[in-house]
Amino acid sequence: MKPESEPQDPLSFVIEWLEKRDELVLAEQLIDTFARYAGSIEEFNAIAKLYLDITCFAKAEQYALKVLHLTTDNTAKYNCRANLAKLYNHFNEPKKSLFYSNQNLRVDGGSPDTRLEQVFSYFLNGEKAESERILRELKAGEETLSEHHRNIVNFNLGTYDMMQGKFLEGLAGFLLNVQKLDLWFNNTPLPFRHWDGGAYPGRTLIMYMSGSGFGDELISIRWMDNARDLGFRPVYYNTRRDMYPFFRENGYECIDDLDSVPSDSMWCFIMQAPLWLKVKPEYEHMDTNGENICVINFRGGDMVGNPGGFVPRVYWDNAIQKMIEYNPNMEFCIVTDDVEAANEMLPEYPAYHNDMAW
């Protein structure tokens, strides 16, 4: 009998719903309201996790440490340490995260949640071999894992498989499981035949960009080139219009509804297109302006009116330091939807609006 995941509580469901729609200010206000009336250790712990889910790090840390200091219950302490481990990984402080994960493993050495948190910590800390070792162990016993945990394991192993020459296998592990985990994709299928390979000259192919960032959009235009080479009429479908000028300048039609699309059209998630195109690894890259350039993708517009939603400066400092350790000649620039906010957070690096960056 495979373990089933626990049902989601109503407040978590609402916060997740708001987060996916970038209603972070409203989500924080809702949590603030519940936090004012929280009166038990369990409620404080739940509040800490919810703040973490919407990246309100200061409030999440405040409530998590409050629980840890107040509670004498071992289960509550365990849950609080789990929240702190997740919190510090998001802070890009993996050593602090490992401190709490290791304490929890002394209580429950087989916890997949704790071991997966360690995977993230070791990866952030540059200990990729240890990260992969844990993933391979979990994969070997995947019949004991929940479906959710299996998807996380396979998602993370995709990166290692690609690095070890299993390119399409690794890419599939990454792109198919990122959909199952609902990290990028709106999983609602379009009302057309799904395309998963093959050439259909003359057909319209709706290449659906669902929930990804600007960098993903820029890279994805090459898959439209490949689809056009197969004889398709590729159409870029995204309800967010920010990148329409870029695609149109390269000769592609952009749509934000399906009213004018032929009924015999086919569709795919554009991020999964390389799987169906069966691309070769030597072509799976994009040329950049130089090997010493690192582009920081800074999200600012989502946080307007929600200053607690910004990740702290230490997060960026830690990430930049790790890139400098990798390449001492690295130069940095910022691409963002909010140049003013980026300049306030990272004033020493040039910042460009998404509309101008390409």
Description:
Helix 4 runs antiparallel to helix 5 and helix 5 (74-90) runs parallel beside helix 7. This protein has helices at residues 10-20, 24-37, 41-53, 57-70, 74-90, 94-107, 112-124, 128-140, 147-163, 167-180, 214-229, 244-249, 273-277, 313-326, 339-345, 354-357; strands spanning 193-194, 204-208, 233-237, 253-255, 266-269, 293-298, 331-336, 351-353. The protein has a 5-stranded parallel beta sheet with strand order 1-5-2-3-4. With 358 residues, it is an alpha/beta fold. It contains 16 helices and 8 strands. 54% of the residues lie in helices and 9% in strands.
Instruction: Characterize the largest beta sheet: strand count, sense, and whether it forms a barrel.
Output: 5 strands, parallel
What is the count of β-strands?
A: 8
What is the rounded distance between the termini?
A: 52 Å
Major sheet: order of its strands? Answer: 1-5-2-3-4
Strand content: 5-15%
| SS-derived structural category | alpha/beta
Could you tell me the mean pLDDT? 83
How many helices? 16
List the helices and strands and how they pair.
Elements: H1 10-20, H2 24-37, H3 41-53, H4 57-70, H5 74-90, H6 94-107, H7 112-124, H8 128-140, H9 147-163, H10 167-180, E1 193-194, E2 204-208, H11 214-229, E3 233-237, H12 244-249, E4 253-255, E5 266-269, H13 273-277, E6 293-298, H14 313-326, E7 331-336, H15 339-345, E8 351-353, H16 354-357
Parallel strand pairs: 1-5, 2-3, 2-5, 3-4, 6-7, 7-8
Helix pairs in contact: 1-2, 2-3, 3-4, 3-5, 4-5, 5-6, 5-7, 6-7, 7-8, 8-9, 9-10
